[in-house]
Amino acid sequence: MRIATLLLTALLAVPSPAAAGPQENPTAPAQAATSAPAAPAPTPAPAEEPYPSFGLALTLGAPDGGVISFVYSPLYWVAVDAGFAYTLAPGLVIGIEFQPVDFIVFPIFRGEYGYYFTGNTTSQIKKWAGISEEMAPLIGDASYNWWSALVGVGIGSRRGFSFKLEGGLTWLSLNVKGGTSTVNNVQVTTDPWKAQAFAPAARISFQYFF
Amino acid sequence: MKPTLIALVALPLAACGSFNVEAEQPLACLTLQPESITIGGGTTPIVGPIVQTWPEQQRTIALGDAIPSFILDGPPQDRVIHLVSFGIEATSGVTSLNWLQSFTVSASLNGGTPVQLVACQGCVPADATRVSVSASNGDYNLADVIDASGNLTLSFGGTVNVPAGATVPNTFGGKVNVCVSAKVKKTFDELFNGN
Q1: pLDDT digit string (tens) for B106-137?
Q2: What is the residue extent of each domain of chain A?
Q3: Model confidence pLDDT, tens digit, residues A149-182
Q4: Is CATH 2.40.160 the classification given to domain A54-209?
Q5: Phi and psi for B69 in degrees, rounded to 5?
Q6: What is the DSSP letter of B125?
Q7: Is the ipTM of this complex over 0.95?
Q8: B 57-96 residues with CB below 8 A of A?
Q9: Hey, is the C-beta of A17 within 8 angstroms of any chain B C-beta?
Q10: Are B70 and A130 an interchain contact pair (Cβ–Cβ within 8 Å)?
Q11: Looking at residue B165, what DSSP letter applies?
Q12: How far separated are the first and last CA of chain B, in Å rounded?
Protein backbone atom coordinates (compact mmCIF):
# COMPACT_ATOMS: atom_id res chain seq x y z
CA MET A 1 0.00 0.00 0.00
CA ARG A 2 2.86 2.35 0.84
CA ILE A 3 4.42 1.67 -2.51
CA ALA A 4 1.04 2.38 -4.26
CA THR A 5 0.64 5.59 -2.30
CA LEU A 6 4.14 6.65 -3.16
CA LEU A 7 3.57 5.87 -6.83
CA LEU A 8 0.25 7.77 -6.80
CA THR A 9 1.86 10.76 -5.14
CA ALA A 10 4.67 10.75 -7.69
CA LEU A 11 2.20 10.68 -10.56
CA LEU A 12 0.28 13.60 -9.12
CA ALA A 13 3.48 15.63 -8.74
CA VAL A 14 4.25 15.59 -12.50
CA PRO A 15 3.38 19.04 -13.86
CA SER A 16 0.73 19.15 -16.64
CA PRO A 17 1.82 20.21 -20.10
CA ALA A 18 -0.52 23.30 -19.99
CA ALA A 19 0.94 24.59 -16.81
CA ALA A 20 4.43 24.20 -18.11
CA GLY A 21 6.45 27.19 -19.31
CA PRO A 22 7.71 27.52 -22.82
CA GLN A 23 8.75 24.22 -23.97
CA GLU A 24 12.20 23.76 -25.14
CA ASN A 25 12.77 21.53 -28.06
CA PRO A 26 16.04 19.77 -27.22
CA THR A 27 16.49 18.78 -30.87
CA ALA A 28 16.41 22.32 -32.40
CA PRO A 29 17.83 24.80 -29.96
CA ALA A 30 19.38 26.79 -32.90
CA GLN A 31 15.99 27.27 -34.59
CA ALA A 32 14.65 28.91 -31.47
CA ALA A 33 17.61 31.25 -31.34
CA THR A 34 17.45 32.38 -35.07
CA SER A 35 13.66 32.62 -35.78
CA ALA A 36 12.24 36.15 -35.53
CA PRO A 37 9.65 36.82 -32.91
CA ALA A 38 6.08 36.75 -34.27
CA ALA A 39 4.91 40.21 -35.42
CA PRO A 40 2.17 41.64 -33.30
CA ALA A 41 -1.29 41.55 -34.91
CA PRO A 42 -2.12 44.99 -36.55
CA THR A 43 -4.47 47.07 -34.43
CA PRO A 44 -7.67 47.96 -36.34
CA ALA A 45 -7.96 51.63 -37.47
CA PRO A 46 -10.27 53.65 -35.24
CA ALA A 47 -13.71 53.97 -36.85
CA GLU A 48 -14.37 57.56 -38.15
CA GLU A 49 -17.14 59.28 -36.23
CA PRO A 50 -20.17 59.96 -38.44
CA TYR A 51 -21.04 63.60 -39.19
CA PRO A 52 -23.58 64.95 -36.76
CA SER A 53 -27.00 65.18 -38.37
CA PHE A 54 -28.71 67.87 -36.34
CA GLY A 55 -27.80 71.47 -35.88
CA LEU A 56 -28.98 74.94 -35.09
CA ALA A 57 -28.52 78.10 -37.15
CA LEU A 58 -28.93 81.79 -36.47
CA THR A 59 -29.36 83.97 -39.55
CA LEU A 60 -29.67 87.63 -40.43
CA GLY A 61 -30.57 88.55 -43.97
CA ALA A 62 -32.80 90.10 -46.57
CA PRO A 63 -35.58 89.36 -47.12
CA ASP A 64 -35.29 86.73 -44.37
CA GLY A 65 -34.89 89.08 -41.44
CA GLY A 66 -33.84 87.37 -38.24
CA VAL A 67 -34.19 83.58 -38.36
CA ILE A 68 -33.46 80.76 -35.95
CA SER A 69 -33.49 77.41 -37.71
CA PHE A 70 -33.27 73.73 -36.97
CA VAL A 71 -31.01 71.95 -39.43
CA TYR A 72 -31.04 68.33 -40.50
CA SER A 73 -28.19 66.95 -42.59
CA PRO A 74 -28.37 63.25 -43.49
CA LEU A 75 -25.19 63.52 -45.59
CA TYR A 76 -22.32 65.96 -45.20
CA TRP A 77 -23.07 67.62 -48.55
CA VAL A 78 -26.79 68.35 -48.11
CA ALA A 79 -28.88 69.92 -45.38
CA VAL A 80 -32.45 71.04 -44.97
CA ASP A 81 -33.60 73.62 -42.48
CA ALA A 82 -36.78 75.07 -41.10
CA GLY A 83 -36.91 78.12 -38.95
CA PHE A 84 -38.87 80.81 -37.24
CA ALA A 85 -38.33 84.29 -38.60
CA TYR A 86 -39.17 87.83 -37.60
CA THR A 87 -38.86 91.29 -39.13
CA LEU A 88 -42.06 93.31 -39.05
CA ALA A 89 -44.11 90.19 -38.34
CA PRO A 90 -43.51 86.55 -37.47
CA GLY A 91 -42.78 84.16 -40.27
CA LEU A 92 -41.36 80.83 -41.40
CA VAL A 93 -38.41 80.00 -43.61
CA ILE A 94 -37.52 76.61 -45.10
CA GLY A 95 -34.45 75.90 -47.15
CA ILE A 96 -32.18 73.33 -48.71
CA GLU A 97 -28.41 73.71 -48.98
CA PHE A 98 -25.73 71.87 -50.86
CA GLN A 99 -22.14 71.92 -49.60
CA PRO A 100 -20.26 69.71 -52.04
CA VAL A 101 -16.81 70.26 -50.55
CA ASP A 102 -15.86 68.95 -47.13
CA PHE A 103 -13.18 71.42 -46.19
CA ILE A 104 -12.70 74.23 -43.71
CA VAL A 105 -13.70 76.68 -46.46
CA PHE A 106 -16.60 75.44 -48.55
CA PRO A 107 -19.01 76.66 -51.20
CA ILE A 108 -22.75 76.79 -50.56
CA PHE A 109 -25.69 76.58 -52.93
CA ARG A 110 -29.04 77.36 -51.34
CA GLY A 111 -32.70 77.54 -52.23
CA GLU A 112 -35.31 78.77 -49.78
CA TYR A 113 -38.92 79.79 -49.33
CA GLY A 114 -40.23 82.16 -46.70
CA TYR A 115 -43.58 83.44 -45.58
CA TYR A 116 -44.39 86.29 -43.26
CA PHE A 117 -47.76 86.57 -41.57
CA THR A 118 -49.57 89.86 -41.09
CA GLY A 119 -48.15 92.04 -38.37
CA ASN A 120 -46.58 95.46 -38.47
CA THR A 121 -45.97 95.23 -42.22
CA THR A 122 -49.06 97.28 -43.04
CA SER A 123 -48.06 100.24 -40.91
CA GLN A 124 -44.63 100.29 -42.54
CA ILE A 125 -46.19 100.16 -46.01
CA LYS A 126 -48.38 103.14 -45.15
CA LYS A 127 -45.35 105.08 -43.94
CA TRP A 128 -43.24 104.22 -46.95
CA ALA A 129 -46.04 104.95 -49.46
CA GLY A 130 -46.98 108.23 -47.76
CA ILE A 131 -50.57 107.16 -47.20
CA SER A 132 -52.74 109.84 -45.57
CA GLU A 133 -54.89 109.08 -42.55
CA GLU A 134 -57.98 109.29 -44.73
CA MET A 135 -56.59 106.71 -47.15
CA ALA A 136 -55.23 104.45 -44.41
CA PRO A 137 -58.36 102.22 -44.25
CA LEU A 138 -57.79 101.39 -47.93
CA ILE A 139 -54.58 99.56 -47.01
CA GLY A 140 -55.48 96.42 -45.06
CA ASP A 141 -53.46 93.63 -43.49
CA ALA A 142 -50.35 92.66 -45.42
CA SER A 143 -48.42 89.41 -45.69
CA TYR A 144 -45.59 88.46 -48.00
CA ASN A 145 -43.69 85.45 -49.24
CA TRP A 146 -40.57 84.89 -51.30
CA TRP A 147 -38.38 82.41 -53.12
CA SER A 148 -34.61 82.93 -53.08
CA ALA A 149 -31.65 81.32 -54.82
CA LEU A 150 -28.27 82.00 -53.24
CA VAL A 151 -24.62 81.04 -53.51
CA GLY A 152 -22.14 81.56 -50.77
CA VAL A 153 -19.05 80.56 -48.90
CA GLY A 154 -18.75 79.00 -45.49
CA ILE A 155 -15.90 78.78 -43.02
CA GLY A 156 -15.82 76.20 -40.28
CA SER A 157 -16.35 72.59 -39.51
CA ARG A 158 -19.15 70.33 -40.53
CA ARG A 159 -18.73 68.69 -37.16
CA GLY A 160 -19.27 71.83 -35.16
CA PHE A 161 -19.41 75.56 -35.72
CA SER A 162 -19.43 77.31 -39.08
CA PHE A 163 -20.02 80.79 -40.44
CA LYS A 164 -21.67 81.41 -43.81
CA LEU A 165 -22.04 84.37 -46.11
CA GLU A 166 -24.50 84.09 -49.02
CA GLY A 167 -25.84 86.32 -51.77
CA GLY A 168 -28.32 85.85 -54.56
CA LEU A 169 -31.70 86.75 -55.99
CA THR A 170 -35.19 86.80 -54.57
CA TRP A 171 -38.69 86.90 -56.01
CA LEU A 172 -41.00 88.44 -53.43
CA SER A 173 -44.81 88.80 -53.44
CA LEU A 174 -46.67 91.18 -51.17
CA ASN A 175 -50.39 90.70 -50.58
CA VAL A 176 -52.28 93.60 -49.04
CA LYS A 177 -55.97 93.61 -48.30
CA GLY A 178 -58.08 96.49 -49.60
CA GLY A 179 -60.78 98.41 -47.82
CA THR A 180 -63.32 101.22 -47.87
CA SER A 181 -62.99 104.81 -46.78
CA THR A 182 -64.35 108.30 -47.41
CA VAL A 183 -61.56 110.50 -48.70
CA ASN A 184 -62.32 114.16 -49.38
CA ASN A 185 -66.08 113.40 -49.47
CA VAL A 186 -65.51 110.66 -52.04
CA GLN A 187 -66.37 107.09 -51.12
CA VAL A 188 -63.47 104.90 -52.13
CA THR A 189 -63.32 101.12 -52.24
CA THR A 190 -60.22 99.16 -53.17
CA ASP A 191 -59.65 95.50 -53.96
CA PRO A 192 -56.62 93.66 -52.48
CA TRP A 193 -53.36 95.20 -53.61
CA LYS A 194 -50.57 93.21 -55.20
CA ALA A 195 -46.88 93.89 -55.36
CA GLN A 196 -43.99 91.83 -56.65
CA ALA A 197 -40.30 92.46 -56.49
CA PHE A 198 -37.24 90.97 -58.11
CA ALA A 199 -34.42 91.96 -55.84
CA PRO A 200 -31.05 90.96 -54.42
CA ALA A 201 -30.90 88.69 -51.41
CA ALA A 202 -28.20 88.27 -48.77
CA ARG A 203 -27.71 86.14 -45.66
CA ILE A 204 -25.16 85.81 -42.89
CA SER A 205 -25.47 82.68 -40.78
CA PHE A 206 -23.90 81.09 -37.75
CA GLN A 207 -24.44 77.37 -37.59
CA TYR A 208 -23.57 74.67 -35.06
CA PHE A 209 -23.95 70.91 -35.45
CA PHE A 210 -24.20 68.88 -32.29
CA MET B 1 -13.93 78.20 -54.49
CA LYS B 2 -12.92 81.13 -56.66
CA PRO B 3 -15.86 80.67 -59.08
CA THR B 4 -18.23 80.69 -56.13
CA LEU B 5 -16.85 83.95 -54.80
CA ILE B 6 -17.09 85.51 -58.22
CA ALA B 7 -20.69 84.35 -58.55
CA LEU B 8 -21.46 85.73 -55.09
CA VAL B 9 -20.55 89.22 -56.25
CA ALA B 10 -21.18 89.11 -59.97
CA LEU B 11 -24.63 87.63 -60.00
CA PRO B 12 -26.36 90.39 -58.05
CA LEU B 13 -24.36 93.06 -59.87
CA ALA B 14 -25.20 91.62 -63.26
CA ALA B 15 -28.89 91.68 -62.43
CA CYS B 16 -28.76 95.14 -60.84
CA GLY B 17 -30.38 96.83 -63.81
CA SER B 18 -33.14 94.27 -63.77
CA PHE B 19 -34.15 94.65 -60.12
CA ASN B 20 -37.65 96.04 -60.03
CA VAL B 21 -40.82 96.41 -58.05
CA GLU B 22 -44.28 96.11 -59.56
CA ALA B 23 -47.40 97.25 -57.71
CA GLU B 24 -50.99 96.81 -58.84
CA GLN B 25 -54.46 97.77 -57.74
CA PRO B 26 -56.85 95.60 -59.77
CA LEU B 27 -59.95 97.65 -58.95
CA ALA B 28 -60.41 100.95 -57.16
CA CYS B 29 -63.85 102.54 -57.26
CA LEU B 30 -64.63 106.15 -56.46
CA THR B 31 -68.18 107.33 -55.86
CA LEU B 32 -68.77 111.06 -55.78
CA GLN B 33 -71.21 112.50 -53.32
CA PRO B 34 -74.77 113.07 -54.55
CA GLU B 35 -74.94 116.17 -56.66
CA SER B 36 -77.16 117.82 -59.22
CA ILE B 37 -76.92 116.26 -62.68
CA THR B 38 -78.45 118.11 -65.63
CA ILE B 39 -80.94 116.35 -67.91
CA GLY B 40 -82.16 119.22 -70.06
CA GLY B 41 -80.81 122.63 -70.97
CA GLY B 42 -83.86 124.60 -69.85
CA THR B 43 -85.59 125.33 -66.61
CA THR B 44 -88.94 123.64 -67.12
CA PRO B 45 -89.54 119.90 -66.85
CA ILE B 46 -89.13 117.86 -70.00
CA VAL B 47 -92.46 116.49 -71.21
CA GLY B 48 -92.55 113.50 -73.50
CA PRO B 49 -92.59 112.39 -76.19
CA ILE B 50 -89.30 114.07 -76.98
CA VAL B 51 -85.77 113.10 -77.98
CA GLN B 52 -83.12 115.65 -77.21
CA THR B 53 -79.49 116.03 -76.36
CA TRP B 54 -78.26 115.21 -72.89
CA PRO B 55 -75.86 118.12 -72.39
CA GLU B 56 -72.24 117.30 -71.87
CA GLN B 57 -71.12 117.67 -68.27
CA GLN B 58 -67.73 117.37 -66.65
CA ARG B 59 -66.64 115.80 -63.42
CA THR B 60 -63.15 115.78 -61.93
CA ILE B 61 -62.18 112.50 -60.34
CA ALA B 62 -59.38 112.79 -57.81
CA LEU B 63 -57.66 109.46 -58.39
CA GLY B 64 -55.12 110.42 -55.77
CA ASP B 65 -57.85 109.76 -53.18
CA ALA B 66 -57.74 106.07 -54.06
CA ILE B 67 -54.33 105.38 -55.52
CA PRO B 68 -51.05 106.18 -53.78
CA SER B 69 -48.81 108.73 -55.39
CA PHE B 70 -46.03 106.24 -56.15
CA ILE B 71 -48.43 104.64 -58.66
CA LEU B 72 -49.78 107.89 -60.09
CA ASP B 73 -46.49 109.76 -60.29
CA GLY B 74 -43.80 109.21 -62.82
CA PRO B 75 -43.59 108.90 -66.59
CA PRO B 76 -46.60 107.36 -68.37
CA GLN B 77 -44.53 104.51 -69.76
CA ASP B 78 -44.00 103.14 -66.24
CA ARG B 79 -47.61 103.28 -65.08
CA VAL B 80 -50.77 101.92 -66.60
CA ILE B 81 -54.16 103.16 -65.47
CA HIS B 82 -57.29 101.85 -67.13
CA LEU B 83 -60.91 102.85 -66.79
CA VAL B 84 -62.88 99.76 -65.81
CA SER B 85 -66.42 101.17 -65.60
CA PHE B 86 -68.50 104.31 -65.35
CA GLY B 87 -71.83 104.55 -63.60
CA ILE B 88 -74.61 106.90 -62.59
CA GLU B 89 -77.08 106.36 -59.78
CA ALA B 90 -80.20 108.46 -59.30
CA THR B 91 -80.75 109.38 -55.67
CA SER B 92 -83.48 111.99 -55.95
CA GLY B 93 -85.67 113.82 -58.44
CA VAL B 94 -86.36 110.88 -60.76
CA THR B 95 -87.76 107.44 -60.14
CA SER B 96 -85.70 105.73 -62.86
CA LEU B 97 -83.18 106.34 -65.62
CA ASN B 98 -85.51 105.12 -68.36
CA TRP B 99 -85.19 108.51 -70.12
CA LEU B 100 -81.46 107.95 -70.71
CA GLN B 101 -81.27 106.54 -74.24
CA SER B 102 -77.55 106.70 -74.81
CA PHE B 103 -74.43 108.35 -73.51
CA THR B 104 -70.68 108.48 -73.95
CA VAL B 105 -67.86 109.24 -71.54
CA SER B 106 -64.58 110.77 -72.64
CA ALA B 107 -61.45 112.09 -70.97
CA SER B 108 -59.14 114.92 -71.88
CA LEU B 109 -56.25 116.82 -70.35
CA ASN B 110 -56.22 120.60 -70.21
CA GLY B 111 -58.82 120.90 -72.96
CA GLY B 112 -56.94 118.67 -75.34
CA THR B 113 -58.44 116.15 -77.75
CA PRO B 114 -60.91 114.04 -75.81
CA VAL B 115 -60.58 110.28 -75.82
CA GLN B 116 -63.81 108.29 -75.72
CA LEU B 117 -63.75 105.66 -73.01
CA VAL B 118 -67.37 104.53 -72.61
CA ALA B 119 -70.22 104.20 -75.06
CA CYS B 120 -73.73 103.21 -73.96
CA GLN B 121 -76.59 102.66 -76.40
CA GLY B 122 -79.77 101.33 -74.86
CA CYS B 123 -77.79 99.93 -71.97
CA VAL B 124 -80.00 101.25 -69.17
CA PRO B 125 -82.11 98.43 -67.68
CA ALA B 126 -85.83 99.12 -67.51
CA ASP B 127 -86.88 101.06 -64.42
CA ALA B 128 -83.33 101.05 -63.12
CA THR B 129 -82.14 103.85 -60.90
CA ARG B 130 -78.54 102.88 -61.48
CA VAL B 131 -76.50 102.16 -64.59
CA SER B 132 -72.90 100.98 -64.75
CA VAL B 133 -71.19 100.47 -68.07
CA SER B 134 -67.84 98.77 -68.71
CA ALA B 135 -65.26 100.78 -70.55
CA SER B 136 -65.41 100.23 -74.30
CA ASN B 137 -61.88 101.56 -74.65
CA GLY B 138 -60.51 99.81 -71.64
CA ASP B 139 -56.95 99.49 -72.97
CA TYR B 140 -56.43 103.23 -73.12
CA ASN B 141 -53.82 104.37 -70.61
CA LEU B 142 -55.35 107.15 -68.55
CA ALA B 143 -51.84 108.13 -67.42
CA ASP B 144 -51.77 110.29 -70.57
CA VAL B 145 -54.76 112.37 -69.43
CA ILE B 146 -54.21 112.56 -65.67
CA ASP B 147 -52.91 115.89 -64.52
CA ALA B 148 -50.00 116.50 -62.20
CA SER B 149 -52.31 116.45 -59.17
CA GLY B 150 -53.64 113.00 -60.00
CA ASN B 151 -56.98 114.32 -61.25
CA LEU B 152 -58.91 112.77 -64.13
CA THR B 153 -61.46 115.00 -65.92
CA LEU B 154 -64.36 113.06 -67.45
CA SER B 155 -67.06 114.44 -69.74
CA PHE B 156 -70.34 112.63 -70.24
CA GLY B 157 -73.36 113.38 -72.34
CA GLY B 158 -75.72 111.71 -74.76
CA THR B 159 -79.34 111.49 -75.74
CA VAL B 160 -82.50 111.84 -73.68
CA ASN B 161 -85.66 110.08 -74.84
CA VAL B 162 -88.75 110.89 -72.79
CA PRO B 163 -91.70 108.72 -73.88
CA ALA B 164 -95.18 110.02 -74.31
CA GLY B 165 -96.97 110.69 -71.06
CA ALA B 166 -93.75 110.94 -69.07
CA THR B 167 -92.14 113.97 -67.57
CA VAL B 168 -88.64 114.32 -66.22
CA PRO B 169 -87.15 117.32 -64.40
CA ASN B 170 -84.31 119.35 -65.79
CA THR B 171 -81.98 118.10 -63.10
CA PHE B 172 -81.85 115.17 -60.72
CA GLY B 173 -79.79 114.22 -57.73
CA GLY B 174 -77.31 111.52 -58.51
CA LYS B 175 -73.95 109.97 -57.83
CA VAL B 176 -71.22 109.36 -60.36
CA ASN B 177 -69.16 106.21 -59.92
CA VAL B 178 -65.83 105.50 -61.61
CA CYS B 179 -63.77 102.32 -61.30
CA VAL B 180 -60.17 102.12 -62.44
CA SER B 181 -57.28 99.69 -62.34
CA ALA B 182 -53.70 100.84 -61.86
CA LYS B 183 -50.30 99.26 -62.21
CA VAL B 184 -46.80 100.62 -61.93
CA LYS B 185 -43.39 99.06 -62.49
CA LYS B 186 -40.24 100.77 -61.32
CA THR B 187 -36.62 99.76 -61.25
CA PHE B 188 -34.68 100.05 -58.02
CA ASP B 189 -32.86 103.03 -59.49
CA GLU B 190 -36.12 104.87 -60.10
CA LEU B 191 -37.47 103.89 -56.72
CA PHE B 192 -34.52 105.07 -54.65
CA ASN B 193 -33.81 108.13 -56.73
CA GLY B 194 -37.43 109.27 -56.49
CA ASN B 195 -38.09 109.01 -60.21
Answers
A1: 999 988 899 999 999 988 988 899 999 999 98
A2: 54-209
A3: 999 999 998 888 999 999 999 999 999 988 898 8
A4: yes
A5: -65, -30
A6: P
A7: no
A8: 62, 65-66, 68-70
A9: no
A10: yes
A11: T
A12: 40
